[in-house]
Structure formats: C-alpha cells, structure tokens
Amino acid sequence: MFDKTKRFFRETWVELSKVTWPSRREVVSSTMVILVMCLVMAVLIGAFDFGLSKLIDWILSWR
C-alpha cells in the first residue's frame, strides 16, 4: 500500500514538472479579459431583463 502511494506522488510530481505554468502577466491579462466579459454579459442580460419586464408591464396594463 505504501509503495503505491509513494509511486502515485512520485508520478504526480513528474507530471507537474511537465506543466507549463503561465507568467504573472498572462494570468493578470486573462483575468482582466474574464472580468470585462462578465461585466459586458451582466449589462446585456440586465438590459434584456429590463426590456422584457417593461414589455410585460405594458402588455398587462394594456388589457
């Protein structure tokens, strides 16, 4: 059992050494892109929701 655990951690360490980690600049720039896209989507969904709620209010008051 201990041999399997030891082998698992050794193989995990070898695989982690093969990973190409992003630089700080890449992480910051990717994070900014994600935050901007989240903001854009929030505004679009909010505007769509506002428009639909006004349309439904108008339809219901028209009856």
Please describe what this structure looks like:
This protein is mostly helical. 89% of the residues lie in helices and 0% in strands. The protein has two helices and no strands. It has helices at 2-18, 24-62. The model has no long low-confidence stretch (mean pLDDT 95).
Shape: elongated
Helix content: over 70%
Structural class by helix and strand composition: mainly alpha
Low-confidence stretches: none
Mean model confidence by pLDDT? 95
Descriptive tags:
63 residues, mainly alpha, elongated
Summarize the structure.
With 63 residues, the protein is mostly helical. It has 2 helices and no strands.
Secondary structure elements and pairings:
Elements: H1 2-18, H2 24-62
